[in-house]
C-alpha cells in the first residue's frame, strides 16, 4: 500500500493482489504499479507451459518501466497527447519484444497476453487496454466498466447475435480477439477520462469477472474498508465461487490532495 501526494490536484492510493486461484497450477497474471509515475498495470498471459506467465511479466515490466521513465522525465509538464503517444509507443515496443521471444524460443511459441495500463496525470486518466482484462470505475457508488473487451463474445454482443446475459453463461468466454505478442501490429484502445476525488478504479483479469458479477463486485467496491482489504475481498470472493482461473486486481483510489 502506497500513497502519493504531489503537485497534482489529486492524490492516488495504489494496491494490488494476485492469486493462483483454486484450479490452475501456476499464476500467469502479472500486476504492477509505479507510484511516482502514478501508473498501474495488469496483464493476463496465455500460451504453453509457463509461457503465458513470461508474456504477462514482460508486458507489465517493459511497458511499466519505459513509461515510468518517460513520465519521470516530463513530469507535470507532459501534455495528455504526449502521454497517449508515449503509452502507444511503449505498448508497441513490448508487443514486438514478446513476439520476438515467442518466435525465437520454442518454449514460448504462441504466447501472448492481455494488458491494461492506467496512467494518472493530475486530474486525468489515460487508459490503454488490449484483450479482455478490464478496468471499472466506481463513482458516487455506481460501478461502470470503462473498457470494452476485445473478445469473440463482445463481437457477438455488438453484432446483436447475443445478449450480455447470454454471453455471461457462454462456454466461449475466453476467446480474445486482440492480444500482445501475437502479431507484428498491436491494436490497443487508448482513451482519456476525467478523474474526480473519491473515484475508485479497478483493473482486473477475467479470473475475477468470470466468477463475480458486476453487482457483487460493486457491493465489495462500496465497502467502507481499507483499500488492501477491498482488493483481497474481491479475490477471495472469486475463489469462493470456484476460482477457475488466476485472479488479479489492481485498485487505484483518488482523493483531494
From TrEMBL:
Organism expressing this protein natively: Paracidovorax wautersii
Name of the protein this chain belongs to: Serine/threonine protein phosphatase PrpC
Top enzyme category: hydrolase
Keyword field contains Metal-binding: no
Enzyme Commission numbers on file: 3.1.3.16
Alphabetical UniProt keywords: Hydrolase
PROSITE patterns documented for this protein: PPM_2 (PS51746)
Pfam families tied to this protein: PP2C_2
Limits of the PPM-type phosphatase domain: 13-254
Amino acid at each position: 500500500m502506497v500513497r502519493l501526494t504531489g503537485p497534482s490536484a489529486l492524490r492516488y492510493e495504489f494496491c494490488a493482489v494476485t492469486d493462483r486461484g483454486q484450479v490452475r497450477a501456476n499464476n500467469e497474471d502479472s500486476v504492477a504499479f509505479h507510484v511516482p509515475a502514478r501508473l498501474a498495470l495488469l496483464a493476463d498471459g496465455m500460451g504453453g507451459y509457463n509461457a503465458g506467465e513470461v508474456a504477462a511479466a514482460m508486458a507489465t515490466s517493459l511497458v511499466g518501466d519505459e513509461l515510468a521513465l518517460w513520465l519521470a522525465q516530463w513530469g507535470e509538464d507532459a501534455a495528455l497527447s504526449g502521454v497517449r503517444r508515449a503509452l502507444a509507443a511503449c505498448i508497441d515496443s513490448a508487443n514486438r519484444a514478446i513476439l520476438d521471444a515467442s518466435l525465437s524460443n520454442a518454449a514460448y511459441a504462441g504466447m501472448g497476453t492481455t494488458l491494461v495500463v492506467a496512467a494518472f496525470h493530475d486530474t486525468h486518466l489515460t487508459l490503454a487496454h488490449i484483450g479482455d482484462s478490464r478496468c471499472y470505475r466506481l463513482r458516487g457508488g455506481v460501478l461502470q466498466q470503462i473498457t470494452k473487451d476485445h473478445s469473440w463474445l463482445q463481437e457477438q454482443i455488438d453484432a446483436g447475435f447475443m445478449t450480455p446475459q447470454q454471453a455471461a453463461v457462454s462456454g466461449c468466454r475466453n476467446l480474445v480477439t486482440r492480444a500482445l505478442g501475437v502479431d507484428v501490429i498491436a491494436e490497443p484502445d487508448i482513451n482519456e477520462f476525467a478523474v474526480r476525488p473519491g473515484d475508485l478504479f479497478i483493473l482486473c483479469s477475467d479470473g475475477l469477472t468470470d466468477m463475480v458479477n458486476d453487482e457483487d463486485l460493486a457491493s465489495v467496491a462500496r465497502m467502507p474498508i481499507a483499500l488492501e482489504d477491498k482488493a483481497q475481498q474481491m479475490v477471495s470472493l472469486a475463489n469462493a465461487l470456484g476460482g477457475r482461473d488466476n485472479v488479479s486486481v489492481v485498485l487505484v483510489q483518488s482523493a483531494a490532495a
